[in-house]
From TrEMBL:
This is Peptidase S74 domain-containing protein. InterPro entries: S74_ICA, WH-like_DNA-bd_sf. Residues 124-237 form the Peptidase S74 domain.
């Protein structure tokens, strides 16, 4: 047992009381090893306030990496778990640190698919919006934009054990739109809204994207225009 400004005991055979501790390299890097006897044991770092646990990081009870938190030292919640296959499990609500500030992925770091029990909720409170006006020329957009069937040139990427990334050719046929055609249709109708955009608004050659959720409003407006035309025709016939 060994203590530095502290008393070691049978449980804590090395005890250090200090404002800081330094483990320096001997010419290259430095690695600290923590080893446990069996998978079911625990090897971890425990963070305490007044000797009461508040956070724990380590392989606790299995060989997965656990990040745990506690409000009182007795009730523990799993915040994040990473297993040997690099699968990440979250144990709570995930939210950005600042509201409406960060994206989930980008044009060159895309998620291949998102699984959800329910659809995406998009906030739409009138108190958050400055109304610009009604959506005009919706029928013109619908007439101009042609839905297409397509196959991705690169259907996905797989990371090899050596860290390299290999492209997988696309095989599945999808239905959708072409961003350039949506842009051309909007220009023809003298419209500019968020159904289309550039990854880098300062670079006209950057990748283009679409937002299908905003096309729902276009379809709704076009349907209203069509219904109004049908109502007018019906009134002429019956009149």
């Amino acid at each position: 047992m060994f203590g530095i400004n502290a008393t070691a005991d049978a449980t804590n055979r090395l005890a250090v009381q200090s404002d800081a501790s330094l483990f320096n390299n001997a010419g290259k890097g430095h690695q600290i090893k923590l080893n446990k006897a069996t998978t079911g044991d625990t090897v971890s770092f425990l963070f305490q306030t007044g000797w009461s646990g508040r956070a724990e990081v380590g392989a606790t009870g299995d060989d997965k990496l656990h990040f745990k938190v506690s409000p009182d030292g007795s009730t523990w919640r799993e915040g994040l778990i990473i297993d040997g296959a690099a699968y990440i499990s979250l144990g709570g609500v995930t939210a950005p640190y600042v509201d409406n500030s960060y994206t989930l992925g980008n044009s060159t770091r895309r998620w291949s698919a998102i699984y959800a029990a329910n659809g995406t909720i998009q906030t739409s409170d009138a108190r958050d919006k400055d109304l610009v006006g009604p959506l005009s020329s919706a029928s013109g957009l619908v007439d101009t934009i042609e839905p297409v069937l397509f196959r991705w040139k690169v259907g996905g990427n797989v990371q090899n054990d050596d860290g390299t990334v290999a492209e997988i050719p696309g095989t599945r046929i999808h239905a959708g739109f072409i961003a350039q055609e949506i842009k051309a249709a909007m220009d023809a109708q003298h419209l500019d809204f968020g159904a289309w955009g550039l990854d880098d608004k300062n670079d006209p050659t950057s990748r283009q994207w679409t937002r299908p959720d905003q096309l729902i409003a276009v379809l709704w407006a076009a349907l209203r225009e069509t219904r109004a035309e049908l109502h007018a025709l019906s009134s002429r016939v019956t009149g």
